[in-house]
User: Fold this.
Amino acid sequence: MCGIVAATATRNIGGDLIRMLRCLDYRGYDSAGISTFSGGNAIEVRKKQGPLAGLEEVLGESPIDGHAGIGHTRWATHGVPSDENAHPHLSEDCGVSIVHNGIIENYRELITEIEAAGIKRVSETDTEVLVHTISLFLAKNGDATAQQIVWYLSQKIRGAFAIVIQRANKPEEIIGMRYQCPMNFVSLSGIAAISSDISSLIEYSRDIEVLKDGQAVAITPNGHAVFDFNGTPSESVKVHADWPIDKVAKDGFDHFLRKEISQEPEALRALVKSARSSADELHAFIAAQDIKKVIFLACGSAAFAGTLGSFYARHKKLPIDVLSEIGSEFRYLPPYVDDKTLMVAVSQSGETADSIGAIEHAKSQGARVLSFVNVVGSTIDRLCDMSVRLAAGPEVAVPSSKAVINQFMATTLVVELLADNSEASFDAWEKGCLALADTIENIIAREDEIADFAAKIAGHQSSFALGRGLDFASALEMALKLKETAYLHCEPMFAGEFKHGSLSLVEYGMPIFCFLGDPAVRHKSITAIEEIKARGAHPFIFDAQDRDDPDVAALGHYFNAANLGPPYSSVAHLTVAHLLSYHAGLLRNTDVDRPRNLAKSVTVE
Ligand code: M6R
Assistant:
């Protein structure tokens, strides 16, 4: 899930590379680097561990520029985050430079060949192996064309990759090749550019070329050639990016995460509009198939939306199996899938590799796939039979917030339409969402109360989040958000399961988050709260009643949001989870926007 850029032009492109990398910062911030060719026989590289600002400082002290260059933001997979492991990687003669996203599975085999040729590696990365492999090829085939280089490399490597290659003996030409990692380009008169993300190319053109798996492109300032790995000319996918360019700014907030939480109500209202504009198509899509099984498919927080959807289907007594599946497991332990299966894929980025793999598998078995995606033009957006925009707007903070609310509500829409594929059913969902947006606004207005809760938990190292029924999805989200945002361990559990073992971990004062949004199991969950209270834990109770319930409030720290009914009340509690995690993160001095070891978009398996 690194970010890759490249540009070649009839003018200097150093500034272009940095501008494009800024759009890709979210893909990885372990290190950043660029290489450029400014004449002579050698390519020059500048790279630095840490976020892009570090590279900019290095460039300030020791600038490089030129008519052609490549750049990278890294999320470490092979080798620790360090200057040495940062991309681009250079060949020993400085004649070839490479950036790469993905994983080269057979890189150890290639190391043997490289070492046999007397080359000493200077990094621990799989990417460096690629640059030496090409350099050895070029040593014998100095005049090799882009097609020959791509063919050679594709024969040598296994894995998932987006690779960009710059070489000094053909400085105006940059080569990109793609297999299971995104790569897009624009080609105009006087400049051509490559990027992992469409967003960083829009400043050049809204007519974007998207490479398909197994395709490569050679760009020059005067044109481009797309071909497959055998060198045969091929057609890329043309996308017109007609969506607005949203500004990525904190707008007066201290953090993107806090800004994005504040946008939850407006994002939800935008989802309602987006779903409304796709309503006819959605009704028709659902009516067109004899659906015997539904599979919600996603990863991380998006997968919790699937949990909610599958449990809500039981509330609605749907007479079919509705499963919630995790992207990373799906290909390797798939449930039975056939042409009577509807897969509903949910993703903010639309680039999550595990989800993409699962979708491809489901499609190969005949399933139809409906997706709810936030990033328009992303791989999942294009891969599915029908795609509805989550419409949450750009989300920068790695902990997802406004997109998650929309993901949760998207899965409930599917359930509503499966239960009753009518306008009335759609209208009821829309009304519920709009009431939920108002409730979320009220919750945000009570931020101080939630910040007080955060102060009470910030000194702890471990906690539990309990929920039954629909509330289990809220517990899952609370636990993940506390882990990634505040580095506070939190284990999500079904409230009724707690007494079957995990209760032994409860110590005096331990924070336990208890969700009471699902009326069907409220009384059962209250019993669980009484049990943990009796063992000395400190319950934090999130209720959904018309008025505060004094008996329940007496059991612990109490926050009552509006009674919206299922599934809306359980989703309203997500905003509480988001604010609580944000404030706990601030008190624990974490980087709430860019937690350690994580990236916004997980484009590797
Ligand atoms: O882009 P996606 O929605 O497919 O991403 C899925 C997960 O990687 C994502 O939800 C992740 O768990 C977030 N960091 C949660 O805040």
